[in-house]
Structure to design on (227 residues):
């Protein structure tokens, strides 16, 4: 299957700082990338969908000014958590879908964010 | 509001037994159904997908779909301790390219 990487895998930061998470498709062109958040023992919650070259579409309740998403190329999307607070601590997972793929999406390994 | 329901478990089965995981969904327009496995601290990985009513087998895994009753299940034969994980059900309607995930069922296979 296709490979999606995420960096960093784990980050600890102080409250009020910003954190950038990168998601890369390594062997295919990702026309669409999805960003999810998962709290312990909870399901995946879709935060936003981004298509290459266009603005991200955010799910209801997700603050677009706090979670900045950039999908600048067909292999890279970034999520920046601005002014992070302890309640933003979570597991952030991206997934990617290639051109013409209707159902298949491949998940990255996830990023564990801890805000102190 | 599209909902996907799963029993959170944990479901505990002995090694070698059949594990049966169930999922119900609310949207009758759903057309694509997925099962993901998620180990603790890891991201989900796709195990199977099914589109049509009936059974679909892949190795030790069988997905069963009943659209009339709006449920989809996953059977794991000859369960192994390495199958211990959380299994996420995901459902996608024909008008959307974004699946809705259930909360997952925790499976424990004990030796």
């Amino acid at each position: 299957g296709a490979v999606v990487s995420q960096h960093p895998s784990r980050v600890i930061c102080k409250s009020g700082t910003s954190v950038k998470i990168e998601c890369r498709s390594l062997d295919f062109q990702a026309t669409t990338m999805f960003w999810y958040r998962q709290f312990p023992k909870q399901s995946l919650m879709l935060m936003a969908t981004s298509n290459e070259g266009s603005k991200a579409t955010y799910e209801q309740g997700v603050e677009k000014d706090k979670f900045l998403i950039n999908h600048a190329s067909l292999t890279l999307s970034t999520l920046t958590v601005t002014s992070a607070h302890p309640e933003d601590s979570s597991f952030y997972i991206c997934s990617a879908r290639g051109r013409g793929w209707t159902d298949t999406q491949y998940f990255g390994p996830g990023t564990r964010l801890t805000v102190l | 509001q599209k909902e996907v329901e799963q029993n959170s478990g944990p479901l505990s089965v002995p090694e070698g037994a059949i594990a049966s995981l169930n999922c119900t969904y609310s949207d009758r327009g759903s057309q694509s159904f997925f099962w993901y496995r998620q180990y603790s601290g890891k991201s989900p990985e796709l195990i199977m997908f099914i589109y049509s009513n009936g059974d679909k087998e892949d190795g030790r895994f069988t997905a069963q779909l009943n659209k009339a009753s709006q449920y989809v299940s996953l059977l794991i034969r000859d369960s192994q301790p390495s199958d211990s994980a959380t299994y996420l059900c995901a459902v996608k309607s024909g008008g959307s390219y974004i699946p809705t995930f259930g909360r997952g069922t925790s499976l424990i296979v004990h030796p």
